Amino acid sequence: MHKDMQTAAKERNSLALSALxxxxxxxxxxxxxxxxxxxxxxxxxxxxxxxxxxxxxxxKQRRESIGLFLQGNRPELASREESEIAVLDRxxxxxxxxxxxxxxxxxxxxxxxxxxxxxxxxxxxxxMPKVAGRADGKAVSETVRRLLAx
Length: 150
Fold this sequence. Notes:
The protein is an all-alpha fold.
């Protein structure tokens, strides 16, 4: 990310530079939290999955902001958020398709032996670590709910 930030600065790409600076700051803040909570030693780096979680959270916040900006009749701000999502998406693994989410959900249902909608918690607990950063939690839960109700 730091190298991309330097490139964006040299190219005078203020949008990419801003998005990357926010991402680096968010990761650094998460590292500070982890050290404070004694989850990792001082000077240690966050594991890859923790960094992905931070970036996924930033993308999710921007998606929510887009909806609010469109409701508030501010399409220029929504467009900026979409552009920032495009910058951040480069650091996330390829998103799963609906078919891949369904296949993973079916596998988790079989693993947990779930049969009823009330078993959804167990299925989600088994499934989310497998699809973390590659699928929206809402889409995953809707798929699991549909399969268990089926």
